[in-house]
Amino acid sequence: MARNVARQEGRAIRNFTTAVFDLIPIQGDFRKELPKTDPGYYFRPQKTILVRTVAEGGRSFYFCGPHRATLPALWRLLTEPHS
Questions:
Q1: According to a count of CB atoms within 10 Å of the terminal CB, is the N or C end of the chain lower?
Q2: How far is CA 19 from CA 7, 8, 58, 64, 65, in A?
Q3: What are the E-state strand segments in the chain?
Q4: How many helices and strands (H and E) does the chain possess?
Q5: Residue among 2, 55, 62 at smallest CA distance from 27
Q6: Residues 70, 28: Cα–Cα separation, whole Å
Q7: Which residues, at least 6 apart from 33, have a Cβ–Cβ distance to it below 8 Å?
Q8: In angstroms, what CA-CA distances link 29 with 26, 40, 49?
Q9: How far from 74 is each of 1, 33, 63, CA to CA, in Å?
């Protein structure tokens, strides 16, 4: 949404990071858009968050697993000091 508003105002938003946390495993390279004949093409998180983000200069990450495990693991990585 922010990208669309910026584009309407003649500005661009680039180089940001997005992530998908899901229980559904994505087959193959999640950073490539699938052909329309593949049902995965219509999986909105892959198409919009993972593929389009990278196409315009951003970075995307895909985490597959129970949220009770993946989200706390991300929090620890972001908040704990690393050596």
A1: C
A2: 22, 25, 11, 11, 13
A3: 17-22, 59-64
A4: 4, 2
A5: 62
A6: 20
A7: 41, 47, 51
A8: 8, 12, 14
A9: 25, 26, 10
Residue pLDDT, tens place only, 9-35: 999 888 888 888 998 888 778 778 888
The structure tokens 């693991």 sit at 73
pLDDT tops 80 at residue 80? yes
pLDDT at 83 over 90: no
CB 63 within 8 Å of CB 70? yes
